[in-house]
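Q: Two folds, back to back.
A: First:
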Amino acid sequence: MHRASNTFSVLQATAAIVSFAVILWSFGLPSFHFAEAANVTSYSDTLSTSQPSVAADHTIVFTTPSGVANNNTITIDLSSFNGTSSITATDIAVSTTSAFTVAATCGGGEQIGAAFGTNDSTLTLTLCASEGYSIPANGTTTIAIGGTNKLVNPTAGSYQIPLTAGASDLGETRVAIVDTVTVTASVDTYFQFSVAGVTSGQTVNGTTTGGATSATLIPFGELSAGSASTAAQDLTVVTNARNGFTVTVTSDGQLDSITGADIDGFRNGGYDDTPQAWEAPSVTIGQENTYGHWGITSDDTDIFAATETYVSASTTAVQIFTHDSPVDGVNFPSTGTSTTRVGYTVQVSALQEAATDYEATLTYVATPVF
């Protein structure tokens, strides 16, 4: 019986409210309306970096269903971030269909007054009354924060950013601040260097070879006075060194005989280390270094830019081949990249001392450059 009594009382109250509403309507009196806030849509804050404790640019984008009337405000709570006190109006840009002019306060012809609160970290943007601008219903607004001064990210975590646009539109978005991720990997180094012989009748830097060589022997044979003889070898490098490689050659001396005679370095015993055009020995009686000489060239145009140019063999390393990036011998097999041909030319005169055992030992040194 008690439950039935309560139910009857509720029905009585409901009927009374309905009757009161009907009476008001019949007399033409105003009815009651309750304002309801709308949610902003497409609300996001994109950071230039999500790394903790690092300064970042913010790009805030949202759409206001109700719009923002002139002299109303947009507020954004950025209290999760540090450095708000350093942000000035020049660090803030606001745009809808076009960019607004932004200043610290209204009254100077600007369209937006922008400032962080002195006691909190809320950014307030005021559509200056004097300029008459507003944001229409369903208008999309972009707010960029970050110029000379930037907000500083908090520690790692998820942070809420509440927003109020105009009289009634509200919204909340979140940003995630995450620790940086370190990616590690390793690639084994490799470096291969090979020397191969060249047959006769081949060219090296504009000169034709007159005899065959192997990987370990350059046999000029018997030299004829007044005639230059050329022999060559092919060099190949394969490496993944970041900055490529260099190849040098050194000689243990000149072409020496056990008798004490020698064939001197190009030109006329001058031992040129800058490429020079080939020329015959000058042949001056009494100056044995002018009786004959030998030199080195290669197809690497980075070193020997002109054809038929030579430097002297030397006990000091002579650069004959170089490249400044990795080469695999497959994708980059061209001359001057992973391969080159190095040539040796010798020429004697009738005054060159007779001997059957002129000899020198060459040493190639290939060096990867990491």
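A: Second:
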Amino acid sequence: MKGAVFIGDELTALGYALAGMDSRTPPADQVDETFRRARDEGATLILLTAESVAQVDQALLNHALTACHPPVVVVPDARDRAMPTDWAREVKQTLGIGGR
């Protein structure tokens, strides 16, 4: 069984590689295939930068997020170029509770 896999930019991948993760830095047109391969190889966790997640087929991503195995987490990159959605804030805003 494969361990955790990071998919994203080279700088952020370096940090995850130093932490022992299998870090992959595909070109934008190969992110979708890299994501599929990580799932097929039996990754136990997949981390994608917010920038990379935009390159994954939306139907595949939705299925992966709801399947919960392996867990898929969207993370910011080291340069904060693209931030993942803050779902807690979005839900609170929709419900009209909490701060702005």
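Q: And?
A: The beta strands are 4-7, 22-24, 45-49, 72-75.
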